[in-house]
Amino acid sequence: MTEKKLTKGNIALAEGAIQAGCRFYFGYPITPQNDIPEYLAKNLPRVGGTFIPAESEIASINMVLGVGASGERAMTSSSGPGISLMQEGLSYMAGSEIPGLVVNIMRCGPGLGGISPTQGDYTQAVHGGGHGDYRNIVLAPASVQEMFDLTIRGFELADKYRMVSVILADAMVGQFQEPCRLTPDHPVTMPEKPWALKGRAGRKPQLLKSLYLGPGEQEAHNQDLQKKYREVERNEIMCEESLLNDADLMIVAFGTPSRIAKTAIRMAREKGMKVGLLRPITLYPFPSQQLHEHSERIRKILVVEMNTGQMLYDVKISAHKDADISFYGRPGGGVPFPNEVLDEIVKAMEK
Fold first, then answer.
1. Are 5-188+210-235 and 240-350 equal in CATH topology?
2. Confidence at residue 203, expressed as pLDDT on a 0 to 100 scale
3. Is there a contact between 318 and 291 (Cβ–Cβ < 8 Å)?
4. What ranges in the chain are assigned the alpha helix state H?
5. CA dihedral 30, 34, 36, 38 (to 10 degrees)
6. pTM of the prediction?
7. Where exactly are the structural domains of the chain?
8. Burial letters for 286-318: b for 16+ Cβ neighbours within 10 Å, e otherwise?
């Protein structure tokens, strides 16, 4: 049996990046993700890596762009306000099809907000962000082990599709301490990258760009990107489905609220109410088909989030047209308690 070590979520993520072969980190400090650069500043040089404390978040993402263009694995991490500053760079990376990993350990907002946990950046990560028609892969861990495993998976998906992968975690997941296996569950390989800019020796010149000025060129490029995104949607959906076979009500939640929901579900079942959970692990691609298929039978749905209803939009457009959807949210640093979720279950069941 692989040994597990009591580990904080942010530390597991940082070690996961090293185990994934990331050798370049660029970042600017902001709470509540500072454990990540602190760990990498100490440990990246030990494996021959490079750590640069950038002068800003704008500089950070553009350094990731440059290293990604060379074919190496690179990452940055921040929280809401810092991620906002990176949006132009993220759009350039998408347009140039340059892979990289961006970590957002969410803090509450809007504005400067505070360091309390939230899920207020869902729309920014999944639907919002920079200019143009593009998508990023978005992974939502709910445990320390997933902080480690999904970081490795994020790098793999970024390279596979030449996209940016985003790890979107609330501050509680980042600060959890749990037993964690700090070794990959499968061999980690570095794929060949013939498109990378590594010098001209022995090959024709090539270019990575997002600027297309010829007639119809930009439209054709956008259509090619959309084909790639459809491939991601067909092949890379991940979700947890629990106790749904006999459920009369389905809770949809990700991150910390999904853990709280599990306790509320246990409490509800002790009272004779049949409740199950669908937890999206990939927020993009969203598990729309899985949710729709369950909602064909389970017509009552309760969405629980630490915001004012951002994933709720994706649930509404994915669910069966006759589904009865309720919502319970705690924005701005509020964290739902299991008994509160149980109260919402009762209300939804009685509708």
1. yes
2. 75
3. yes
4. 9-19, 35-43, 57-69, 80-85, 87-96, 122-126, 144-161, 171-175, 217-235, 256-270, 288-295, 311-318, 338-350
5. 120
6. 0.97
7. 5-188+210-235, 240-350
8. bbbebbeebbeebbbbbbbbbbebbbbebbeeb
- Nearest alpha-carbon partner for 138 in 129, 227, 178, 261: 129
* 99, 163 contact by CB (below 8 A): yes
Residue owning tokens 């899985």: 290
Instruction: Say what the pLDDT of residue 85 is.
Output: 97
* Three-class SS state of 188: coil
The dotted CATH code for 5-188+210-235 is: 3.40.50.970
Measured distance CA(29)–CA(77) in Å, rounded: 9
Helix/strand/coil for 340 = helix
Q: How many residues does the chain have?
A: 351
240-350 has CATH 2.60.40.3600 classification:
no
CB 39 within 8 A of CB 14: yes
Q: Calculate mean pLDDT across residues 132-144.
A: 97
Task: Report the DSSP beta bridge partners of residue 239.
Answer: 280
pLDDT tens-digit readout, 212-234? 999 999 999 999 999 999 999 99
Contact between residue 345 and residue 302 where contact means Cβ atoms under 8 Å apart: yes
Task: Taking residues 192-197, report their average pLDDT.
Answer: 94
Residue 69 contacts residue 96 (beta carbons within 8 Å): yes
